[in-house]
Protein 1
Amino acid sequence: MPLIDISDAKPGMILNKDVEDGRTGTIFATSGIVLSTRIISRIKNLGTKYIHVAKLAENTDNDKQEIVSEDKEIQIYHKEFSNKTKNLLNGVKMGKKLIITEISDTMDNLIDEVTNSNNILGKLRQLSKDDDYTFEHSVKVSMLAAMIGNWLNYSQSEIKQLAYAGLFHDIGKLKIAQHIINKPGKLTKREFEIIKKHTVYGYNLLNETIGMNKNVALSALQHHEREDGSGYPQGLKSFKIHEFAKIIAICDVFNAMTTDKPYKKKVSAFEAAEYIERSSFRTLNPKISRIFLDNIATFYVGNTVKLNTGDLGKIIMLNKHRPTRPVVRVNDEFIDLLKNKKIKIIDVIS
Ligand SMILES: [Fe+2]
C-alpha cells in the first residue's frame, strides 16, 4: 500500500486508508473511494500531506473514472449528511436545542456537489432511501433548493441559507403526532388544521435557534403560501412571500410528486414539471418555475423515457418555449410532444 505525496495523487487512484478531517475529527474520505480532481483538492485543503493509495483502478480511462468517483462522492456526502442531520433532529425531538454548526461542514460539501454537478437529478434518484419520508424528502428539497439558488446566481452564503431552508422547511412536523403525519390517504378537516400548524411551529423553532438566518425561519412559515393567496397559514399573496419560500414551494411539490408514497404512486419528472408549469399561472411563482423547468429539462436530453403509448424513446431535443414537451425519437420516428398532446412521458428510465 504505497504512501504518496498528495501532490502526486491522480484521479483514478484508489484511497487505501481513511483520510481524517483534523479540525472535526471526522472521516473526510473513506478507504476504497476512487479519487477525483475535486476530492484531491479537498484533501489538499485539509492540510493533509500524504495519503495511502492502492494500485490504480483497473480501468484507467480518466474521464470514466472521474464520473464513477463523482457519483460515489455525492453518495458518501449524502450519507454522512443524512446521518448527522438525523442525529440532530432526533435530539430536537427529545427537547434538545438545534445546533446547526454540527452539520455545517457536511452541508458545505453537499452543496458543492450539487452546484457542480451536471446531472444532479439523475444522482438524486440514486441516493439511498430512508424509511422516514419527511426526512428523506427534506434532504432532497434542500439539494434541489441549492440547485435553484445556483441557477438564480445566488451568492454562496445565500445558497447555504436556501439549503437550510429546504432541510428545515417541515421541521415543525416534529411537534405533530406521527399518526397524523404518516396517515395514508385523505386527512379529515380537523387533522388538516393540525398539519397546517407545522409552518408556525417550524418558524418559532428556527427563530429561536442561535445562528439561524431569519430567512430560513420565514421559509418554514411561508412554504405553503401561494402566489394567489390560496395558501396557508396566513393566505399571503405573491409580493408578501419571501423568495426562499417560493423556491422551497416548487422543490416541495416537485419532489413530493416524483417520490413513491404508500398511498400515492409517483409520476415522472416530466408530469411533475407540467404540473408546475400549469400552476405557475396561479399558485407557484412564474419566474422561478421557468428557471427550474428550463434547467431541469436540459438534464434529460439523451435520456431514455417511457411513453404512455407503451413505447420507449430517447429525448432528442427540447422545444424552447415548452421544455416539458420535448421531441422524442421512438425507433426511427420523431415524435414532437408539443404537437402530440395526448402522448405523455410516464417514466425516465436512464
Ligand atoms: Fe410543509
Note: The two ends are 37 Å apart (CA to CA).
Protein 2
Amino acid sequence: MTRAYNLSAGPAILPIEVLEKAQAEMLNYKGSGMSVMELSHRSQYFEEIIEAAEANLRQLLDIPSNYKILFLQGGASMAFTTLVMNLRKTGKVAYDEGGNFGKKALEAALELKEAYDLQVDVVASSAYANYIHLPELPEELSEDYDYLHICSNNTIEGTQYREFPNYEGVPLVADMSSDLLSKPIDVRQFGMIYAGAQKNSGIAGLTLVIIREDLLNLNADLPVIFNYNTYAKANSLYNTPSTYPIYIHKLVTDWLIEQGGLEAVNQKNIEKAQILYDYLDESELFKSPVKKEDRSVMNVPFMTGDVDLDAKFIALTEEHGFRNLKGHRSVGGMRASIYNAFPRKGLEHLVELMKKFEKEHQ
Ligand SMILES: Cc1ncc(COP(=O)(O)O)c(C=O)c1O
C-alpha cells in the first residue's frame, strides 16, 4: 500500500525518512540486540539518544544556555495545569483567550483559582467571534502579572501569531503545540514554551518544555512529581520518561537539520500554504473563514458553506489517497493540517481536486 496524504491535526504525518530509520533500527538498535522500546532509560544507549535530542533542539531553536529543556509526559493539556502551579508568584496571571486551546488553558487556571488564591485575568479574547480571528492584545500589561499565557497557533481555528508581544517584566508563556519547529523563533522572548510533540516534533507521549532558569523552582513546596525543577535537575530522567517518543523526536530533529534547519523548513511551509490559500482566494466555491493577516501556515480550515457538498468533497479526497480532511466539529467544513512532513505534491494534488470539484458543482 502506498502512503496516505495524511492531513490530520495530530497525531500527524511523519517524515518517511524518520519512519524508515525507526523501522531499520526496530529489532536491533545499534547492535544492542534490543529495540529502543526495550532499552533501560538509564542505559548508555538511551542517554546518548536523550542527549542528542536535547542538542538538536538547542541547535534548531538556538536555545540559550539559561533555558532548560524538559522531556515530560501528560500532553500540553497537563502543562495547562502544571504551568500554573510552577509559575505562580504573586498569584496574578493573565490569559489571551484566542482559540479553543487558549480557552482550555484558561479553564485549567480557573480550576486552581481557589486552591492557590489566584487572580485570573483574560486580557484579550475573541470568544465573542467564536475565535475566528486573533484577539487584540493590550498595549501594556501591569508588571505584577506572573505571566501572560498565549497560544501561538490555534490548531482548530487556523489562526497564528506572526509576532509576539513583549511586556516588560511579564514572562510570556506560549503553547506552541502546533507550530513549534515549523519556523525559527526567538526563544529569548519567552519565559516558557511548551508543546505536545505529536505534530511537528514527533509522536504522542512526549511534552516538550523549554523554560528560563529563573522560573524554575518558584514553588519548592509543590509535590515533587509536578515540580518542573525535579526534571530540570535530573535531565528529564527523574523517573522513566517516554523513551520511544524521545527517540522519535531525536530522529525528527535529525531530519529537520538535514532539511537545512528551520529557515529552510519555514520557507517550504510558507510556499505550501500559499498554494492552498491562493486557490481559496480565487475560488467561488471554497472559502477560507480566516482573514489574511491571521491565517495559519500549519492548519487551513475551509468550507463550501453546504454541509452535503463538504461531505462529498471529503469523500472524493479519500478516493484519491487523502485522509483526515474533515474539519473540527466546532468549525465544520474541511481542515488541512499541513505540517513540516506534509509533501508539497500532496497540496498540489489537493488543489487540483478542488478545481475539478468546483467545475463540476458550479
Ligand atoms: C494548540 C494545542 N494546544 C494543546 C493541545 C492539547 O494537546 P494534548 O492532546 O497533547 O494534551 C493541542 C492538541 O491538538 C493543541 O493543538
Note: Residues 9-10, 75-77, 101, 151, 155, 175, 177-178, 196 surround pyridoxal-5'-phosphate (CB under 6 Å).
